[in-house]
Amino acid sequence: MDVKKIAVQTAMRYRTWDPYEIADARGIQIIYAPLKSILGYYTKYKRVQCIILNDGLPLPLQRFVCAHELGHSICHANLNTQWLRQNTLVSTDRIEREASTFAVELLLPDSLILDNPGCPLHCLCAIAGIPTRLMSLKTF
Fold it and tell me: How confident is the model at residue 90 (pLDDT cuts 50, 70, 90)?
């Protein structure tokens, strides 16, 4: 599965790189809840897709988690994924890695790197809300 290609095609189809706008256009409900240590999760029940986000997260991380869960909804639409926890962001599990790769590619498109040639990748990740430890998922 070429996750980068899926992320780029998704952004082109919906004419935005914003995960909230894409979720809205796809009819995915976003619900905010106090999830304690859980960052968020994706679920589908009777054709209703939902992204549940921890309402206590800083906005940049919340945006990344939204993009990650959107990746699940697009790449793994019929799977109810395990809850994304702080310590599983860098999971070696294929499904979690694909969702994180989708999020990184959506939030850090190649054009952002090209438009900022002198800016280190870790700085661009910080601007885009991508946890630094996941920047290795970016292909360019």
Answer: very low
Domain of 121?
A: 3-135
Render pLDDT for 21-67 as a digit per residue (tens, 0 to 9). Answer: 999 999 999 999 999 999 999 888 888 999 999 999 999 999 999 99
Contacts of 42-51 with CB under 8 Å at 24 or more apart are 42/69, 42/70, 42/72, 42/73, 42/76, 42/80, 42/81, 43/80, 43/81, 44/73, 44/77, 44/78, 44/80, 49/73, 49/77, 51/23
Residue 97 is assigned to a structural domain of this protein: yes
Tell me if 140 is assigned to some domain: no
C-alpha distances in Å from residue 128, one per residue of 36, 72, 78: 24, 19, 28
The conformation of residue 120, written as its DSSP 8-state character, comes to: -
Write out pLDDT tens, residues 4-19.
Answer: 999 999 999 999 999 9
DSSP state of 42: E
Environment class of residue 127 by beta-carbon count within 10 Å: exposed (0-12), middle (13-18) or buried (19+)?
middle
